[in-house]
Amino acid sequence: MTLLAVVGGTGLAGRAVVAHAVAAGHQVRSLSRHLPPADKRVAGADYVQADLRTGAGVDAALKGVDALVEAMDARAGAALQALPVMSVATLAAADRAGVQRCVLLTIVRAGECRMGYYQAQAARALSYEQSGLATSVVYATQFHNLVGGIFAAGAKVGIIPAFKGVSFQTISTADLAAVLVAQALHGGQEKSSVRAGGPAVQGMHEMANAWKLATGSKALVTALPLPGSFGAFLRAGKNLVPDAAVGTETFSDWLAEK
Ligand SMILES: NC(=O)c1ccc[n+]([C@@H]2O[C@H](COP(=O)([O-])OP(=O)(O)OC[C@H]3O[C@@H](n4cnc5c(N)ncnc54)[C@H](OP(=O)(O)O)[C@@H]3O)[C@@H](O)[C@H]2O)c1
Fold this sequence. Notes:
alpha/beta, Rossmann fold, seven-stranded parallel β-sheet, binds NADP nicotinamide-adenine-dinucleotide phosphate
């Protein structure tokens, strides 16, 4: 039986990886700074406290681990600045523990967007690509939850934002988890990288209308410009990988499930 560590196993993507790996019969250890309450745990998984920024608890948490998936995140401030270093720390700790394969979850073409969050994601990917360990980098498109979250946040002030000229190829974290676990269990010493997108490219306006219908929101779907480097990145379709549409759950499926 493989012992898989999921660094950030309590997060949105990490939880799905833990659930997928447990269901596939693997032994799973989630690492995070905070332990989740009982009702947020995946039955059968172990949850341990470890901080990849300070190093506290990390070596003990990786003892005996065969493969690792890194699904940590930080959105802003000092934590975001530290994120690339945390990926380097993850690799160093994995090396000390003799972990056979390390898999990083990051975002498609992050290096092509000047936004700080995306630059941090690109730096993490580079550290995996350049490390001497057997690694896989999974470049994923935006999650259904991310776009749904933008709609939900806007709806609170009466507007469901549809950024002009923007499409997404959102993927479910469950579909992505299958890709991440498959990469983690990939034998051999060679490095690999894969792109993983959702099943369909959809205009944001169409997605906004689907979200409004599914949630019964009274807010108005509103076309808005999205300035800045992130807007330019999205309008250029750099967030899309139509030739790597590995997910099966559509945005509408995800809405129906919610
Ligand atoms: N959102 C998207 O649309 C999208 C699309 C493609 C790829 N991704 C990638 O997916 C990754 C995961 O995103 P997510 O939304 O699932 O993240 P998330 O829900 O914010 O979860 C982050 C996880 O990291 C843990 N963490 C943060 N700092 C830590 C530290 N110092 N030591 C140990 N654990 C730490 C958190 O637990 P604690 O806070 O308890 O430590 C939590 O388990 C991102 O890095 C991003 O590259 C996201």
